[in-house]
Amino acid sequence: MVTTLITTVVTLLLASYYRQWSNDSVNLIAPTGGYISAAELILQRGGEPLLLEWLLTFERHPSVNAYVFDDQGISLLPDVPLSVQDYAFSSDSYVAKVNPIGRSEILVKAPLQGYDGRVYLLVVEFIHPLVVFNLPEYLAWGALASLLLFALWSFVLSGYLTRPLRYMQKTVRSFANGDWSARMNPKFLRRKDELGELSREFDHMAAHLERLIKDQRQLVSDVSHELRSPLARSAIALELARFDAVPDQVEHLDRIELENQRLNDMIEDLLGMARLDTQQDHSHWKRVDCHKLLIHIVDDAKFEHQGSDLNLTLHGELSQVIGDAKLLASAFENIIRNALLHTAPRTSVDIDISSRHENLRIIIRDHGPGVEESKLQDLLRPFVRAESARERLGSGHRGFGLGLAIAHRVVLHHRGKLRLHNHKDGGLIVLIDLPIGPTSKSN
């Protein structure tokens, strides 16, 4: 904007000097002959009163003024500019004065003779355009117009520059949430600037990461399938070994059987996770009453963990979602078993169900030691366990670090969210938000 203002001022100054160097001055002086003849004719026919009336008409003219001085040097009009007075009484005899940067750009004077023989002096003033146009106001409007122009241009330019960044931010967020197919808009990839180059590099990186993740998941699935055959043969060999086993060997065979069963369970969990990553068919989904589902899970948990205290509370009447009842039951069961494992002795596991906006919210809280804040999100990854879980593997819990990971995948599969928090009074909180389907509100 400063550059624009400087350019405007310089242009106006050059235009002023150009008017002096060109024949504009001649073009302005030429009409004064008509003014002089008209003034002398009016003076001879009507005297000073009619001439004064004629002079007053020039007040409505934006760029020309006329003044008349009598033979005593007194002006017929009041408030004569000092520059006009100096020129009227100067020694230059009827010579036009040109001043390109003054108030009076051109001054022309001529004698007038009345009918009574008195001599008057007519001075015609051509006012400088910058004075007529009110330079401060003109510059103010120019500055405002420049500001608006620059604001509009900045808005367009910022949109042009930031639109790819906003789209990239949205794409990165989708990618971070597990949408590995998220890519930049093709029109941004065709740009020739740095943002286009950045978009192409991001797409290249995203494609590489997607390929690595798919290969990793495929490897886990393939390895899990391949492990089932040797485990099945191992189970057969174990049963054959029992026929010839002596009493001292039974304990070791039982241990081998337990470990084989744990491996089978882990492989089943891994295959279940692989299916969740690839399964897209939701045609079998139906309305699931999460409250009834949790009642059955809590009853089973109480039966398996005698003396455990589980409190299930439903807030409101709405507890239905659209989904796969078997998968949801598996997720809830994994979380509740994990909570029972970590809650302190003689404390409860609290389960609350409520509806919030368009989601069904399920909160499961234990009263255990909690987890370090820096490790909370790691618990949602496979084969990650809290330290307290490592210390309690002897309680019969499988302890592969897959329970929360599977629950997280199930919730994501149902387009929901699962988050972990530490309670301020101790214990871990698992917060699940599941979207309520359009038909789940009606029973």
UniProtKB/TrEMBL annotation:
It is found in: Cell membrane. Residues 159-214 form the HAMP domain. Pfam families: HAMP (PF00672), HATPase_c (PF02518), HisKA (PF00512). InterPro entries: 2C_sensor_his_kinase, HAMP_dom, HATPase_C_sf, HATPase_dom, His_kinase_dom, HisK_dim/P_dom, HisK_dim/P_sf, Sig_transdc_His_kin-like_C. Residues 222-438 form the Histidine kinase domain. It comes from the Bacteria. GO terms for cellular component: plasma membrane. It catalyses: ATP + protein L-histidine = ADP + protein N-phospho-L-histidine. Its EC number is 2.7.13.3. Its main location: membrane. Keywords: ATP-binding, Cell membrane, Kinase, Membrane, Nucleotide-binding, Phosphoprotein, Transferase, Transmembrane, Transmembrane helix. It is a multi-pass membrane protein. CDD domains: HAMP (cd06225), HisKA (cd00082). It is an enzyme of class 2 (transferase). The chain crosses the membrane at residues 138-161. PROSITE patterns: HAMP (PS50885), HIS_KIN (PS50109). SMART domains: HAMP, HATPase_c, HisKA. GO terms for molecular function: ATP binding; phosphorelay sensor kinase activity. The lineage of its organism: Bacteria, Pseudomonadati, Pseudomonadota, Gammaproteobacteria, Oceanospirillales. This is histidine kinase.
